[in-house]
C-alpha cells in the first residue's frame, strides 16, 4: 500500500464548499462531514440543494396528484353522466386525462432526479471513505479490520445511497396522504377522520417495530463485518492453512460465523414482515371501512354517487403511497445503520501533524533516525544488518513517516513534511508489498514510473518473468499476481520500487525469495541504477553487504557499529556470527 500516492483533492471537487472551488487553500479548510449517522445522512442529502429540492418537489407533485384523478372522476359522474351533459362529461374527462399525463410525467421526472441524487450521495460517501483510508495509510491495518473496511465499500455505501433515494418518495407519500385526507374531509368529515385515525394508529404500531428493526439491523451488520473478516483471512492464508492442515478448522469457524449471520438475518426478517404486512393490509382495511361508511351515507342521501366513487378513488390512491412509505422507511433504517459504520471509519483517529507543514530539504539531503542512530546519506548504498528484521522495518517506517518519530530529512522533521512530497521523495518498499490487479506494465509503473518500466525490469533481473508470460508486459494478472511464484512476485515488487525513482529508497529484504545467481545480478544492477541516489537495504545477505558502500549493524533497535563489510567482519564478533551463520 506504500506504493500508492495519496490522491490529491481536485480543486473542482464537489466536496469543497461552494465559492471555494479553484482555490488551493480551500482544500485544507474544507468543512469536514459530520460523524453522527443521522446527521451524516442529512449532510449527504443536502450537499446538492438544487437537486434535492427538485426531487422533493417533483415527488410531492407526482404522488400528491394521484388523489386528484378521483376529483375529476366525481365531476364526470355527477355533472356529466347523472345530468346527461356531454359537454361537462367531456370537460371533466379531458381534465382527468391531462391530470394523469402530468402525474405520469412527474413520476418519471422525479425518479430520474432521485437516481441522480442517489448516485451523487453514493459517490460522496465513496470519496469520504477512500480519502479517510488514504489518510490513515499504514495505520489503517492497526486500527481497523479488513472486514470493517471491505463491508463499508461492499455494503454500506450502497445502503446509504438507497436511503437517500427513499427520501423523495417518502416526502411524496406524505404529501399524497395529506391530500387524500383533505379531499375526504371536503367530501365527508367522517371519511376524513377515518383516514387520519387509521394512519395515526398505524404510526403508533410501526414506531416500536422500526426501533426493533434498527437494533436488529445493527446486529446483522456486525455479523456481516465479522464474516467478511473471516473470509478475507481464509482466502489470504489458504495456502498456509492447507500446508499446516488447518483448513478444516477454519472452515468450521466460518460455518459458525455463517450460522450466526443467518440467525441475525432471521431476526431482521420478523419486524420486516410485520412492516410489509402493515404496508399491504392497512390500505385495504381502510378502503373497506371508507366504502362501508360512504355507502351508508349515499343510502342516507348525504353523499352523491359521484362522491362515493371519489371516496373509493381517494382511498385507492392511498394504496401506493402507504406501500412505498413502509418500504422507504425500511431503507432509511438500513441507511442509518450503514451510516453508523461509515461514521466509525471517519471517526478513526489519524496521526496528527506536529507543527506547521514545512518545505522539503534540498535534493541529496540525508535521512536520520535519532531513536536508532541510523543515517542514510545521499548518494550512498547502505546495507542495514540485524538478527531481527522487524527492528529494521520499524526504523524504515520512522524514516518514511509511517509512524510517529523524531526522524529528520535533512534539517526538516519528517513529521512536518508535506505527505505527498515525502511519499514522492522517500519510498519504503516491503518485500511482500501488495500487487494490484491489471497489466504487468501498470503494476510496475505504479505511481508515475511508466517511462521507466523497461529499465526497472532490467535492474530487477525480471526479464525472464516477463518473457514467460503470454503477452509480456501487457499480460493481465490478478491481485497479488498469484499465478507467479514468490520469487517472481518479489522481483516485480522490486522493479516497481525502482521505477518509482525516489530520492531515497528503503528496501526491506528485496531478494529473500530469489536464488543466489539472480541475487548477484540484482545487486550489481541496482547499485548501478541507483548510483548517486540514497538507497538502504535491510539484509543479512553477504552479496548485498559486500557490495554496499557502508554497513550499519543494528542490535536492540540501535546502530551499534558501522563501516564496510570487511571492517565489521574483522572487528565485531556478533556481526561476524550473524552474516556467517555462526561459521568461522
TrEMBL record:
Keyword Transmembrane helix: yes
Domain of life: Bacteria
GO CC, any one term: plasma membrane
MF (Gene Ontology): ABC-type oligopeptide transporter activity; ATP binding; ATP hydrolysis activity
Domain (ABC transmembrane type-1) ranges: 55-334
Nucleotide-binding in keyword set: yes
PROSITE patterns listed in its UniProt record: ABC_TM1F (PS50929), ABC_TRANSPORTER_1 (PS00211), ABC_TRANSPORTER_2 (PS50893)
Membrane topology: Multi-pass membrane protein
InterPro entries recorded: ABC1_TM_dom, ABC1_TM_sf, ABC_transporter-like_ATP-bd, ABC_transporter-like_CS, P-loop_NTPase, Type_1_exporter
Record's keyword terms, sorted: ATP-binding, Membrane, Nucleotide-binding, Transmembrane, Transmembrane helix
Pfam families: ABC_membrane, ABC_tran
Residues that span the membrane, as ranges: 51-77, 89-109, 167-185, 191-211
Residues of the ABC transporter domain: 348-581
Location relative to the cell: Cell membrane
Protein name: ABC transporter ATP-binding protein
Source species: Glycomyces lechevalierae
Amino acid at each position: 500500500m506504500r506504493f500508492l500516492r495519496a490522491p490529491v483533492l481536485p480543486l473542482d471537487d464537489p466536496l469543497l464548499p461552494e465559492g471555494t472551488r479553484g482555490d488551493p487553500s480551500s482544500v485544507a479548510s474544507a468543512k469536514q462531514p459530520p460523524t453522527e449517522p443521522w446527521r451524516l445522512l442529512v449532510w449527504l442529502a443536502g450537499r446538492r440543494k438544487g437537486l434535492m429540492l427538485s426531487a422533493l418537489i417533483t415527488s410531492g407533485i407526482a404522488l400528491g396528484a394521484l388523489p386528484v384523478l378521483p376529483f375529476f372522476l366525481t365531476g364526470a359522474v355527477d355533472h356529466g353522466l347523472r345530468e346527461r351533459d356531454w359537454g361537462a362529461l367531456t370537460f371533466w374527462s379531458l381534465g382527468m386525462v391531462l391530470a394523469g399525463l402530468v402525474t405520469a410525467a412527474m413520476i418519471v421526472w422525479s425518479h430520474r432526479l432521485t437516481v441522480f441524487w442517489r448516485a451523487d450521495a453514493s459517490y460522496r460517501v465513496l470519496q469520504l471513505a477512500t480519502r479517510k483510508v488514504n489518510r490513515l495509510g499504514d495505520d489503517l491495518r492497526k486500527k481497523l479490520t479488513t472486514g470493517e473496511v471491505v463491508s463499508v465499500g461492499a455494503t454500506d455505501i450502497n445502503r446509504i445511497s438507497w436511503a437517500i433515494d427513499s427520501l423523495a418518495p417518502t416526502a411524496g407519500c406524505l404529501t399524497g396522504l395529506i391530500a387524500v385526507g383533505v379531499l375526504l374531509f371536503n367530501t365527508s368529515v367522517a371519511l376524513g377522520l377515518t383516514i387520519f385515525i387509521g394512519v395515526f394508529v398505524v404510526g403508533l404500531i410501526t414506531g416500536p417495530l422500526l426501533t426493533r428493526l434498527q437494533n436488529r439491523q445493527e446486529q446483522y451488520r456486525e455479523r456481516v463485518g465479522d464474516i467478511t473478516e473471516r473470509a478475507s483471512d481464509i482466502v489470504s492464508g489458504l495456502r498456509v492453512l492447507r500446508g499446516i492442515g488447518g483448513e478444516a478448522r477454519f472452515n468450521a469457524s466460518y460455518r459458525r460465523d455463517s450460522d450466526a449471520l443467518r440467525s441475525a438475518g432471521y431476526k431482521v426478517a420478523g419486524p420486516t414482515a410485520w412492516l410489509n404486512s402493515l404496508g399491504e393490509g392497512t390500505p385495504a382495511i381502510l378502503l373497506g371501512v371508507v366504502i362501508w361508511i360512504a355507502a351508508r351515507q349515499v343510502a342516507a342521501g348525504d353523499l352523491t354517487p359521484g362522491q362515493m366513487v371519489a371516496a373509493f378513488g381517494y382511498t385507492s390512491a392511498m394504496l401506493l403511497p402507504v406501500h412505498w412509505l413502509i418500504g422507504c422507511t425500511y431503507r432509511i433504517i438500513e441507511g442509518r445503520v450503514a451510516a453508523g459504520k461509515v461514521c466509525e471509519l471517519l471517526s478513526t483517529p489519524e496521526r496528527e501533524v506536529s507543527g506547521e507543514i514545512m518545505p522539503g530539504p534540498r535534493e541529496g539531503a540525508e535521512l536520520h533516525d535519532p531513536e536508532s542512530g541510523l543515517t542514510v546519506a545521499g548518494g550512498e548504498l547502505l546495507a542495514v544488518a540485524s538478527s531481527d528484521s522487524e527492528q529494521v522495518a520499524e526504523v524504515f517506517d520512522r524514516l518514511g513517516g509511517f509512524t510517529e518519530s523524531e526522524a529528520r530529512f535533512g534539517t526538516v522533521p519528517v513529521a512536518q513534511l508535506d505527505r505527498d512530497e515525502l511519499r514522492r521523495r522517500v519510498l519504503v518498499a516491503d518485500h511482500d508489498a501488495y500487487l494490484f490487479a491489471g497489466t504487468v506494465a501498470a503494476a510496475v509503473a505504479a505511481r508515475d514510473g511508466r517511462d521507466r518500466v523497461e529499465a526497472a525490469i532490467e535492474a530487477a533481473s525480471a526479464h525472464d518473468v516477463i518473457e514467460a508470460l503470454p503477452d509480456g508486459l501487457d499480460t493481465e494478472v490478478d491481485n497479488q499476481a498469484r499465478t507467479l511464484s514468490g520469487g517472481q512476485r518479489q522481483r516485480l515488487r522490486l522493479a516497481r520500487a525502482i521505477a518509482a525513482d525516489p530520492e531515497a529508497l528503503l528496501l526491506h529484504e528485496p531478494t529473500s525469495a530469489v536464488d543466489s545467481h539472480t541475487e548477484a545480478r540484482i545487486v550489481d544492477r541496482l547499485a548501478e541504477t541507483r548510483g548517486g541516489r540514497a538507497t538502504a537495504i535491510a539484509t543479512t545477505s553477504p552479496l548485498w553487504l559486500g557490495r554496499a558502500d557502508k554497513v550499519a549493524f543494528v542490535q536492540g533497535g540501535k546502530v551499534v557499529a558501522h563501516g564496510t563489510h570487511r571492517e565489521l567482519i574483522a572487528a565485531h564478533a556478533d556481526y561476524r556470527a550473524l552474516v556467517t551463520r555462526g561459521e568461522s
